[in-house]
Design brief:
- The structure is a homodimer.
- By secondary structure, chain A is of the alpha/beta class.
- Chain A has helices spanning about 5-15, 30-40, 45-60, 65-80, 140-145, 150, 170-180, 180-190, 230-240, 295-310, 335-345, 375-385, 405-410, 425, 440-460; strands at about 85-110, 115, 115-120, 130-140, 155-160, 195, 225, 245-270, 275-285, 320-325, 350-355, 365-370, 390, 415-420.
- Helix content of chain A is about 35%, strand content about 25%.
- In chain A, the strands form two sheets. In chain A, strands 1, 2, 3, 4, 5, 6, 7, 8, 9, 10 and 11 form an eleven-stranded mixed β-sheet that branches. The first copy, chain A, has a three-stranded mixed β-sheet with strand order 13-12-14, covered by helices on one side.
- The two termini of chain A are about 20 Å apart.
- In chain A, about 60% of the residues are buried.
Chain lengths: ~475, ~475
């Protein structure tokens, strides 16, 4: 049995007995009451929806390093200020700039016709006139890994895994490595190109999901793209005739030097402990085909709106509420890694943190990675969140979300607030990630959850266990 | 009261009394029994689905006049032969060749970002570098028609009507004229370009519906395109800021001379009256973004499969079953009009006809335009179709379907077999018109309906009233 489970058990026993040690972290009754009011007010407040509407309309797609990246940063600074945040600032984030200019695909033989595909992040372009080669199909990443390089050499690998819809989106755990690791594995075996069935759950959509690859060494890359589900079906059928299937990829994309963007940060300054922070946020960048509404305009908006509700209280909270709009999450957590690197030394000052980056579906589960003595406070938070449909799973760790997982990795106490992702991978990273996918009521529930927990963490008597190297062995994150 | 209603009433009275005149058209009992067997066999036969699978896989998109047009004709000839049709031939159809090379759109100001759009049939291209102009929005075609030309001159008209889903697809009756007539009206008022909210019912899809415009005089055209529903939402929101909204259209498309394609015809030759024909069919061309599965590979496949079932009976039917795969329906019923022009003189030989061109949803309603003395035979057909869910509406005329409406216009007795089109306009004319949209069971029901009615019409004692100029005043068609 793993140590955290023992400590969880101990905490549960303590709670069950009604006893609490003097060292236990607790949320004062007045703060619980205010959190309940924040929660209820948020449910009837459209600030979050209006923020994501503003971002996706006024800036639209925000590919990291593109001209829209700077417009996104400008928007975030202006929005923080307009919302009345006490402090607004940026921190630079530098990363390789990947650009997408155009992308086309076709079956060349035996049945010539166009294919709908989208280039993957860090894919190089094809030679002028395109790359034409026979495809070789694999059911899974494991099958590709096991393949004799002779069967792959000179061909375009096609990995054909079909994702299904789940509330927790767990098929992404299979699909994502096919997109990230698959191209690297294929290149190493001598493939000249890489295709995958889109990492997306809408079997009928012709808008494939883009996303990043694991390419790191520019000398070891091959053109890589995702075809939509109907296009993958078509490739399957074409292969079913038993003749070689040849396709052409025509991608104009690639890395063009470095770019320095920014994490944009807004704070509601704590009245008692301004240097102690509750960290929430989302990422400001998005993939380019859609307008980044669910990924992750929603996350930025949820965090901004939650902090704004706390700001509008008669008094500032005891600790600082820090909202971070991260740069370039999509191409490898660049903003989150830069942030963690810069702030690792202050990890003990991070009271509790978590990022919203799984759309705008209702939060239905909470879990936490905190010190045992803070389990009581977490249970108090859970009790406030239960009426809006959030179940506390005391057996799971909290991961902190995508970028903030990096601070969690440094020792920050973290929650996971799991959203309903049933439809998320229908739209994630596609042209269809647009504002119409967000239900304003679900958005308001998210804001309620973030406002209530942030406030309670900010007012708690005691901390949640953040310290350098804490939680190093708490297993899976988000 | 209109004449057909009186004759319908008389026929109903006759049927109710159990009497039948000597001149009444009837289906012999043996033929009814065989039709029931055909119907039941069809429900467990996947021939129709296999045909549309073959067409959409092996040929894919089939834009009229494109290289795939000839591949479609070759496919149809080969498929008719493979299915054992007695006679297979083509008839030429000549029309202007419209080509689509590329299409891009963007909001230029106040919120620069790309838009997803698709050029409309017969749209000219924009000048190199695109056409940039302010948009002016109208709620409806009527509002555009009523507009002072001064408000439109030099601008890009944007007509913003939102279609909803209905079983009978009736919102297309509003949407289609916005696409067909709207560009012509806008051009006449001095607009420099035309945009419409897609004539499509999926509010979340980013794959807009293309389709033909009413442009006929190449000197009186302007670039015309459809934006997806989320893009139209975005334009609405941008306009909501109260500042001028400027967009850029960059379309490389246009008419390139003439093309001669072909209607492809397969026949099961009648044993007694080979010159008398039951005419069924679909259209072989499709729009280019999708693979033309529901529009109208399904129709071609339903008709082919129905005739194949009749062919497989121990004896040939009394009259000929003629399956017509029409050329270029999409850009103005070119195949249907050429067919009607060529065969108008033989209209009296067309026993009964109808075309399938509304997807592959289940047939739920039948109506007919036939002579009063044939109402009894229609009621016999209805009785055979009722068990598979088809309701006979004796008060509605039959239109014959898209291309065959032209033969009906010359005097051919015609049915309408109305399919469930609830989802049809989610995919119609979009990149998402692919095979996965077809339910094999629904397809089989369609084949059952077509096989049963075609056989009964072929075996009837008597005709359904086809004659030059008949049914000229039967009102609405499909």
């Amino acid at each position: 049995m793993r140590r955290p489970s023992l400590t969880l058990l101990a905490a549960s026993l303590l709670l069950a007995s009604g006893a609490a040690c003097a060292a236990d972290t607790t949320v004062p009754a007045a703060a619980v009451k205010t959190a309940e009011q924040l929660r209820d007010k948020a449910l009837h407040d459209d600030t979050g929806y209006r923020i994501v509407e503003s971002l996706t309309t006024e800036v639209g797609p925000r590919l990291a390093g593109s001209p829209a990246d700077q417009r996104g940063v400008d928007w975030a600074i202006a929005k923080f200020k307009a919302l009345g945040f006490d402090k607004v600032y940026t921190e630079p984030v530098t990363y390789p700039k990947w650009v997408r200019r155009s992308e086309h695909g076709a079956i060349v033989s035996p049945f010539p016709q166009s294919m709908v595909l989208t280039a993957l992040g860090y894919s190089p372009g094809t030679p002028k006139g395109g790359l034409t080669a026979q495809i070789v199909r694999f059911d899974s990443l494991d099958a590709l890994k096991a393949a004799d390089p002779a069967t792959v050499k000179g061909k375009i690998v096609f990995v054909d895994f079909r994702m299904h819809r789940y509330k927790d989106g767990h098929d992404y755990g299979t699909g994502s490595p096919i997109r990230v690791q698959g191209p690297v594995v294929a290149q190493a075996k001598g493939a000249v190109g890489y295709l995958l069935r889109t990492v997306g759950t809408d079997p009928h959509s012709r808008t494939p999901n883009t996303g990043v690859t694991g390419f790191r060494d520019p000398a070891k890359t091959i053109p890589a793209a995702a075809v939509s589900n109907p296009d993958a079906d078509q490739l399957e059928r074409a292969l079913g005739y038993g003749k070689p299937v040849t396709v052409r990829l025509d991608l104009d994309c690639g890395i063009e030097g470095q770019y320095t963007g920014a994490n944009v940060i807004g704070e509601i300054t704590g009245a008692k402990h301004p240097d102690q922070v509750v960290a929430i946020g989302g990422h400001l960048d998005s993939w380019d085909p859609g307008t980044g509404a669910i990924d992750d305009g929603a996350g930025v908006a949820i965090a901004m709106a939650a902090a704004k509700l706390i700001r509008d209280l008669p008094q500032r909270p005891d600790r600082t509420i820090r909202v971070i709009a991260f740069a370039n999450e999509e191409m490898g957590l660049w903003g989150g890694r830069a942030y963690a690197q810069k702030h690792a030394g202050e990890v003990g000052k991070f009271q509790l943190g978590t990022e919203s980056d799984f759309g705008a579906g209702k939060v239905w589960r909470m879990s936490a990675s905190v010190k045992p003595e803070a389990r009581g406070a977490i249970a108090q938070i859970a009790k406030v969140l239960a009426p809006v449909g959030v179940a506390y799973d005391a057996k799971r760790p909290g991961g902190g979300g995508s970028d903030l997982s990096q601070m969690h990795g440094k020792g920050m106490a973290a929650l996971s607030l799991t959203q309903d992702g049933t439809d998320y991978f229908d739209w994630h990273h596609t042209a269809a990630d647009t504002l119409d996918k967000i239900d304003p009521k679900d958005m308001a529930q998210n804001v309620a959850v973030y406002a209530a927990f942030s406030y309670m963490a900010a007012q708690a008597d005691g901390d949640f266990g953040s310290a350098p190297g804490a939680f190093a062995d708490d297993g899976a994150g988000d």
